[in-house]
Amino acid sequence: MDNITHSLLGLAVGEATVQLQKGKKSDLPYHTRLLFWLASFFGNNAPDVDIVFNLFSPDRIFPYLSHRGHTHTVVVGSILAFGGTAFLAAGYRWRGWQVSLKHWGIALGLAFLGVLLHLFADSWNSYGVHPFWPFDNHWYYGDFIFIIEPFLWFSMIPAVWMATQNRFQKNMLIFLGVVLVGLIGLGPFVPSPIRWILLAWAGLMAASTRLSARKRIAVCFVAIAATLGSFWSVGRFTRQQISLDLKTQKPSSQLLDLVLSPSPGNFFCWTFTALESESDVYRLEAGIFAPFSSFLPVEKCPQILTPEQRPSPLVASKNPNSASYLWKAEFQGSIREFQTLAHTHCWVRNFLQFVRTPIWEVNSEQVGLADQRYYRGNQSARFGSMLFESKKNTNCPGYLFPWIPPRLDLLSLR
After folding, report:
1. How far apart are CA 116 and CA 96, in angstroms?
2. Taking the CA of residue 381 as centre, how many other CA atoms within 13 Å lie in the half-sphere pointing to its CB?
3. Which of 16, 140, 217, 414 is the most interior residue, by most CB within 10 Å?
């Protein structure tokens, strides 16, 4: 997820802890409240410290394998949580601020919880995480939330706004809310029927500011749970429906994976990528699906994140469109060719530790490999795509990550 979501979640958890610790007392000391907020905020953002490593990346593949890499694991995340709490302790000691040992224990717990929440939140979308290293190096994908979700922002902004007493922070949260409302009202991301649902949700959450602090933070977390539950439920229904339709259309094909991602703020529109195999043929089909087409037909779904253009090696889909399906592109390749590339080309092999939806193109001089989740053409310059020299194992990377390739199933087929 984006760091605004991580930050808001961290502050909301910190405020919930403040309310739970207050008990019947009028309030906690300011420095104790600040400690809870900072510890939770830090924990919810700490795993993204790997972005700093990418500034010193030795090549273009390294960032794909290092981001959401070791720092996005329970083991290293726990070390970060302890280190962050120690840093806060040093800062408090330097400022002469006194906090009880009990509250320092709670702060440490908040930092650990924040790391776990970060990993949990990052697992919601199609990018994936592998949090259980070194015991399990597989990728895990939630496929039910877009990386930026307005429902979540609206659920948390009012409670966090009421919790902070800092004018700058309050103004920043107001600015964030206004920008979000503006994008929903004027931007192309959200179709008209969904726009009014989102704005009504924003108004409902804004009204929660009239509640007591405890009730307000409770409403915040109920709203988060409702958002996640709604997207997860519709996503599960969408997966079942698309899988059933693909099985009906191509009964002899094996469905290897079905990648899903909803539109921002809209569980009525889902982009999908289906990966299938049949004999030596690997097939990828991408499109948009509207699970409730009687309410919102697929042609009303936003397509700004799904380009009309089909850059090579993608071609136009042969499947007919309907009220529920808008087929965008497809790709076919030889499984044996893919396996040969992976086994003989060290750069391809490394990149496949990240690529979930592979498409490729080979000629006498170059090998083009891309992840269709992010491919928009121009393999040499865009995120999710690479252009390699056709020479097999020339100047191989000097590093090795332990991540199991997402398409191990494809590499293992015979």
Report:
1. 30
2. 2
3. 217
Query: Taking the C-alpha atoms of 308, 309, 310 and 315 in order, what is their torsion angle to the nearest 10 degrees?
Result: 70
pLDDT in tens, 42-75: 999 999 999 888 788 777 888 888 888 999 999 9
Q: What pLDDT score does 314 carry?
A: 84
pLDDT at 183: 67
Strands 325-334, 358-362: parallel, antiparallel or unpaired by DSSP? unpaired
Residue 379 confidence (pLDDT): 47
- For residues 219 and 44, what is the distance between their CA atoms, to the nearest angstrom? 20
Residue range 13-29, pLDDT digits in tens: 999 999 888 765 557 88
pTM exceeds 0.85 for this model = yes
Q: In the chain, which residues have pLDDT < 70?
A: 23-26, 183-189, 304-312, 376-385, 391-393, 413-414
* Bond prior to 358 in cis (omega within 30° of 0): no
CB 38 within 8 A of CB 127: no
Amino acid at 353: Q
3-state SS string over the chain?
CCHHHHHHHHHHHHHHHHHHHHCCCCCCCHHHHHHHHHHHHHHHHHHHHHHHHHCCCCCCCHHHHHCCCHHHCHHHHHHHHHHHHHHHHHHHHHHCCCCCHHHHHHHHHHHHHHHHHHHHHHCCCCCCECCCCCCCCCCECCCCCCCCCHHHHHHHHHHHHHHCCCHHHHHHHHHHHHHHHHHHHHCCCCCHHHHHHHHHHHHHHHHHHHCCHHHHHHHHHHHHHHHHHHHHHHHHHHHHHHHHHHHHHCCCCEEEEEEEEEECCEEEEEEEEEEEEECCEEEEEEEEECCCCCCCCHHHCCCCCCCCCCCCCCECCCCCCCCCEEEEEEEEEEHHHHHHHHHHCHHHHHHCCCCCCEEEEECCCEEEEEECCCCCCCCCCCCCEEEEECCCCCCCCCCCCCCCCCCHHHHHCC
